[in-house]
Structures are given as C-alpha cells and as structure tokens.
Amino acid sequence: MPIMRVKEIRDMSSEERMKRLDEMQTDILRLKTMIKAGGTIDNPSRIREIRKTIARILTIEHEEKLVKERTKGKK
C-alpha cells in the first residue's frame, strides 16, 4: 500500500509537494542510516514505499511543469 496515492499528490499544491518530498527524503535517509549503523527497522519494505512515493511526487511535478510550458507556448 502506498504512503500517498496519486490523487492525493495531484490535489496538493506545488509547495506542499516539495515540503512532503523533503520530509520523505529526510525519512529515507534516517532509515538507511539506521540500517548501516547495524540497527534494524520495524518495516523494511517502508524504504521501498518511500522511494516509490518520492518518484510519484517528482513525476507529477514534472508533468505539471511540462503542461505549464506547453500552455505558455500556445499563447
């Protein structure tokens, strides 16, 4: 189950997405550091879920950027 669904991400503003992206990147860095330090995490699949959600956020941001550029060019 994804941390955030695509519909939720699309409903956010660009600033909210960037804030959430920063939080997730910090979270994944923390989890990876815990693993490298020899610790264990409760849910190892959480890293994969976070990575996929980061990719979703970046993809939607890129799509919206392209749409804005296309509408600018048509005017």
Describe the 3D structure.
The protein is an all-alpha fold and about 80 residues long. The protein has a single domain, classed as Helix Hairpins (Orthogonal Bundle). It has 3 helices and no strands. Helix 2 (about 15-35) packs antiparallel against helix 3 (about 45-75).
Give structural attributes.
single chain; 75 residues; Helix Hairpins
Quick structural summary:
With 75 residues, the chain is an all-alpha fold. The chain has helices at residues 6-11, 14-36, 45-74.
Topology:
Elements: H1 6-11, H2 14-36, H3 45-74
User: Can you give the helix content as a percent range?
Assistant: over 70%
Order of helices and strands: HHH
How many distinct folded domains? 1
Which fold name fills CATH's third level, the topology?
A: Helix Hairpins
Low-confidence blocks of residues: none
**Whole-number mean pLDDT:** 91
Distance between the termini: 41 Å
Give the number of DSSP strands. 0
Q: What does the main sheet amount to?
A: none
Structural class of the helix and strand makeup? mainly alpha
Shape: elongated
* Rounded radius of gyration (Å): 16 Å
